[in-house]
Amino acid sequence: MEKIQKMLEELSNLKTDMHNKDFLLTWQKTDAEILATLKTAETLKALYESNVSTKVFETGLAVSQFRDNSTRTRFSFTSACNMLGLAVQDLDEGKSQIAHGETVRETSNMISFLTEVVGIRDDMYLGAGHTYMKEVAASLDDGHKEGVLHQRPTVVNLQCDVDHPTQSMADLAHLKNVFGSIENLRGKKIAMTWAYSPSYGKPLSVPQGIIGLMTRFGMDVTLAYPEGYSLINDVVDTAQTNANKSGGKFQVVNSMEDAFRGADIVYPKSWAPFHVMQRRTELLRSRDNDGLKTLEKECLANNAKYKNWECTEEKMKLTKNGKALYMHCLPADISGVSCKEGEVAASVFDRYRIQTYHEAGYKPFAIAAMILLGRFKEPAQVLERLLASNRKRVGA
Amino acid sequence: MEKIQKMLEELSNLKTDMHNKDFLLTWQKTDAEILATLKTAETLKALYESNVSTKVFETGLAVSQFRDNSTRTRFSFTSACNMLGLAVQDLDEGKSQIAHGETVRETSNMISFLTEVVGIRDDMYLGAGHTYMKEVAASLDDGHKEGVLHQRPTVVNLQCDVDHPTQSMADLAHLKNVFGSIENLRGKKIAMTWAYSPSYGKPLSVPQGIIGLMTRFGMDVTLAYPEGYSLINDVVDTAQTNANKSGGKFQVVNSMEDAFRGADIVYPKSWAPFHVMQRRTELLRSRDNDGLKTLEKECLANNAKYKNWECTEEKMKLTKNGKALYMHCLPADISGVSCKEGEVAASVFDRYRIQTYHEAGYKPFAIAAMILLGRFKEPAQVLERLLASNRKRVGA
Amino acid sequence: MEKIQKMLEELSNLKTDMHNKDFLLTWQKTDAEILATLKTAETLKALYESNVSTKVFETGLAVSQFRDNSTRTRFSFTSACNMLGLAVQDLDEGKSQIAHGETVRETSNMISFLTEVVGIRDDMYLGAGHTYMKEVAASLDDGHKEGVLHQRPTVVNLQCDVDHPTQSMADLAHLKNVFGSIENLRGKKIAMTWAYSPSYGKPLSVPQGIIGLMTRFGMDVTLAYPEGYSLINDVVDTAQTNANKSGGKFQVVNSMEDAFRGADIVYPKSWAPFHVMQRRTELLRSRDNDGLKTLEKECLANNAKYKNWECTEEKMKLTKNGKALYMHCLPADISGVSCKEGEVAASVFDRYRIQTYHEAGYKPFAIAAMILLGRFKEPAQVLERLLASNRKRVGA
To answer: Which ranges in chain A are annotated with CATH 3.40.50.1370?
Structure first.
């Protein structure tokens, strides 16, 4: 309990302006806000593990909108909402129907009369997901200003075309835990690298989220991919700017080995090239199924040139003392297990399997933190009241 | 808080007999019961906005059964249930399968062992929706009488072929708020008129709900539609009887202009003609897809003759001081926005957009009121206890 | 309240070891554990009916995974979880996709960070359902041991290929209530018999569950089926062993009349022969649709030879004083009502209809008991605290 008390003191010392705001991209948040989110997540986790109820809402709705299949993120979001006392109601428009304009404005209000948070996953179309979330946010602003909505629900990005902040914040929490502190991450080398996968069309949001966030704390971030597998330019620029500001490093290389050499952390994960995602977006929009098949074929053939981009035992030996921390957002394409040839050798994955589970385990708490900070002006006080009331989570 | 205290006094002065009853059609309820529902909805809204918890159930289930797609009503129902402490569980039979007899009796009991409310939307088939709800209600009566069900769940009509009471009650709450009181509605002219839409098969329940409810408070209700677009006869008769009793007026005209002239309120909304809905019901039942296509074609062609039934700026000028209140259950077919030509001109809709959102905002509270009155013998006392306990809804 | 106090004393006298364990097969539980489950279910029912809140979790998730359609079991599970304070989140993999190995291990952990119970229904494939549940359980053990999961969720079998413990425990609760005590069941004859149905592919888990559980309390259990409709051998052996141990009887006959003769209880219900389910499992796995059609045709033709296996008034006259208790897990195939010729004559069913509803009404409480015993080391103390706090379930 003293540990939690200390966390709360640290939290209340951070100057943040997150109340009635959304959590869409980590680089729209100040360092203090990122640290406050992390601290809040850790506090909620500590309260949970101490069997203290974290229910700050007696009643209230959480809206989830998944424009792509999801199991892990769905459960993380539901867990986060439940932990705070909110009930989740799915908004299911059907995957193919992408609403715009008047409909978004109206629907956003209609689902929000008693709603505290709207969680959205929309990562299929380049240029669409983040735009859609901003449209929802503007509609909620409008409804709140006009008195239609008594409260302003917080929009939480559960993965868009640009960023995946609930993943990257969970990753940061994991790194902090493994290395002992945010300060200890300074100078540590993280290799965010493309890896081979026998599938295509994987979003760019994870690597973009990682380079956009990890460059802020003085880390040495290396992004590696085969020629042609570049990310959104703006995000790469953001990563560079962040690194300059934080005293870290950011570089792009075209060799997995170069990235791994001396790395403290490796994050090998497949994604589709930016230009492929652009073509795919157009083909999806024009419902050109033949075009999509041709693109998939081309893309898989291109991927196949880079089967050697696998996180093998040999490559792991290149890392710092051969013992870099392996990270993945899961599920990984494990060679010989979930596919013939994939992102990671089975023996490497197996050694770090439990660690990747721990990594994922931060996500519900990271999401809950985003909600809490978006909905409460004085989050540290709210958490202190929880601690003081000491109401049991389990056990009547 | 004094305001709420006053509301509760007014509520406890109304003599009602709603405990263990359902809310299926507004005209099955006495005036006092309608006013009690309205007062309870307003009280719940006031408590909500004062951050007082309205959780009257520690645990308990709410069953939702949507036999037609729905986003708005689904969220309103979920919000209402959540606000009272109930968890929603969907009963999803598949849209095509319409259960009867033994199956309804059995299923109604099987889903209700710990259930407090069953919300049903069934508006696709003329002659079916209301009948089905009565069948469910009778099954629950039976199960309760036989001791199978410890409590008698309340059935709430979330839209049937005959009435849409959660909509009309929200509309009444909105009117009361705009005009200051129920008494002030006396003599006010409301034009419930058909309007052109490029779609077909819209249910009759909204116009029927409006003429069935608004005739009870001395309003001057004009129903307008092109020849052939009549409603269910019984409901029209009910409206006339209500008007006679309440000292109001009820008339049917075949001109949108006539209806708009001097109106204080206009409610322009498309629906399918009664006889089309009857044919459609038969075709749906016999799964005659060709017949359905032919009917749709015929019906759209017929609609197209009445494209001038649009709520334009010009027609709005005919209303009282050119400033009638525009109402709609949403979503509206807005000309040039959601369709080429539709129910309402974009400039008219835009001027009233926020008001229609406020109108919709009463729905969760109207539904919660129906549940509360159905489940508690002394609803005013229950609400008083909520007020007295002053347990915060948000904020630990 | 004194009655409940007495139940709790009896419960605390039963030596059980169910904490952090699963409820997969009744025959994996000791007699004391079966009785404790029954007692806990009865206590929860009594608390519910006394309007005492049974909420032992402030927050927490319940995962439901239905690999087959279900309405009744779904509502029972949701009711059970809700009664204890848990929110249900569905894990929906799609019916065709049966995950194995790495995926099961990973998914089981990913959905369980804040989860207290995982309810699984998987009864389609012989040899698969129970195996899958054990795989999930082992994954949760692993995750808990490794510190990935703060708590060890309890797996509850909501019907597998081998057993249907939530059904058989509800049946036992019903029998205890009808006959006054478990002791009174000693020597009573129960006829678990096959009955004709115009459908095919019904699981074996209900008859297996009944013979596996009812043989434990000294009952005279007769299993009857036409030649060729045998059950899984291991379960039949278990029933025989149970009967020997408990001083009861177990016999298999091939005549419905023989089974009914002198029976105190009859449970006539259709199922598919074991060897048909095996062939069906193979055909489903190889997605051999033609083979499945052929099998269905063969199987229905074979069923049709045994249309006289119907629970008629005439057969009921063979039972003890012609008044045996009729039981069914519902829905029954009622001749002339839900099908032309079926498991039971309409007049017989109708006489026992309300009793079958009561039978089903125990299921939510039986499931809640399994959860409570799986999650709490001292369940009697938890229930005592609920009783002492006397927090109202309904009524603010």
So the answer is: 2-163+363-389, 168-360
Residue B320 near residue B264, CB atoms below 8 Å? yes
Q: Please name the residue of chain C whose CA is at the shortest distance from the CA of residue A364.
A: C113
Say if the Cβ atoms of A61 and B82 lie within 8 Å: yes
| E strand segments, chain B | 61-66, 87-90, 115-122, 154-160, 189-193, 220-224, 249-253, 265-268, 325-326
pLDDT tens, residue by residue, B292-349: 999 999 999 999 999 999 999 999 999 999 999 999 999 999 999 989 999 999 999 9
Q: Considering the domain C2-163+364-389 in this protein, what is its CATH number? A: 3.40.50.1370
**Model confidence over B249-260: pLDDT tens digits?**
999 999 999 999
Q: What is the 3-state secondary structure (H, E, C) of A295-356?
A: HHHHHHHHHHCCCCCCECHHHHCCCHHHCCEECCCCCCCEECCCECCCCECHHHHHHHHHHH
- ipTM tops the 0.90 cut: yes
Statement: residue C29 has pLDDT above 50: yes
**What is the rounded average pLDDT of the residues B160-181?**
98
What is the CATH T-level fold of the domain B168-360, as seen in this structure?
A: Rossmann fold (3.40.50)
* A148–B358 CB contact, under 8 Å: yes
At B74, the amino acid letter reads R
User: pTM (2 decimals)?
Assistant: 0.97
Q: Where in chain C is the domain with CATH 3.40.50.1370?
A: 2-163+364-389, 167-360
- Can you tell me the distance from the alpha carbon of A184 to that of A202, in angstroms, rounded to the nearest whole number? 32
CATH number for the region C167-360 comes to: 3.40.50.1370
Contact B190, B156 (CB under 8 A): no
**For the domain bounded by A2-163+363-389, which CATH number is listed?**
3.40.50.1370
Residues of chain C that touch chain A, judged by Cβ-Cβ distance less than 8 Å:
55-61, 63, 87, 89, 91, 93, 101-103, 106-107, 109-111, 113-116, 143, 146-148, 150-151, 375-376, 382, 385-386, 389
